[in-house]
Amino acid sequence: MFIISERINGQFISVGKAIDNRDSKFIQELALKQVDSGAQALDVNVGPGRDNGPEDMTWLVSTVQEVTEVPLCIDAFGPKTMEAGVKACNNPIIMNSTNADPARMEKYFPICREYNADIICLCMDEKGIPNSADARAEMAMLMMATAMEYEIMPDRLFLDPLVMPVCAAQDQCAKVIQAVSMFQSLNEPAPRTVVGLSNVSNGAKNRSLINTTYLAMLMGAGLSSAIMDPEDKELMDALKAGEILLNRSLYCDDFLRA
């Protein structure tokens, strides 16, 4: 399981303040803490509604990569902020993200190709998130085919079926699991998959329990990566146990520490 930390995000009040104040010490300590907790990549997001989004993203990316060489997942909706982050990045790059809207793919796939990035592909289009696993798979196939037109091969994509909050769209939780399973047959080898895990518990109580249970279910369906909180010990323990049970990691009695 490839773990992408969700914590370097301007929507968290402390991170937003650190970006505003150019508090590099806070950001760098946070980045190192995430990596020490098990993150293999860091999602980097300045947050929405910023007047100086490109400038803020350039500073944030530069600050983080001064202390770590792990891949950075440049998380921005606007193309200018996205490209600013990608340009500033010397670490391996994941773009977060495009979707199946033709206008968005037309903007983001060229950036992906130019900077040799991987890219997260959200299974939605200009009409929104589809209701079924089948429709999600159709959008995934469309994005894979369009990416190849830009000389971006399937092994550079992460397919995201889009997790919905259980308290608002309970029926979608099972459909996302079904979509992850369906994605396994879209290419050989199977394409990589990713979810924003904490979305499932947004607005709910017992968030860690919901996240942990859902991660285990998704792993069983073939999920290969997640944007999540590596500081949640119960979540990370479940992930490690799942890796053993799915024969992805070699068993040892001390597997939680290994």
TrEMBL record:
Protein name stated in the entry: Methyltetrahydrofolate:corrinoid/iron-sulfur protein methyltransferase
Molecular function (Gene Ontology), one example: methionine synthase activity
Family: Belongs to the vitamin-B12 dependent methionine synthase family.
Family matches, as PROSITE patterns: PTERIN_BINDING
Pfam families in the cross-refs: Pterin_bind
An example Gene Ontology CC term for this record: cytosol
InterPro entries from the UniProt entry: Dihydropteroate_synth-like_sf, Met_Synthase/Corrinoid, Pterin-binding_dom
UniProt keyword list: Methyltransferase, Transferase
Domain (Pterin-binding): residue spans on this chain: 1-246
GO biological process: methylation; pteridine-containing compound metabolic process
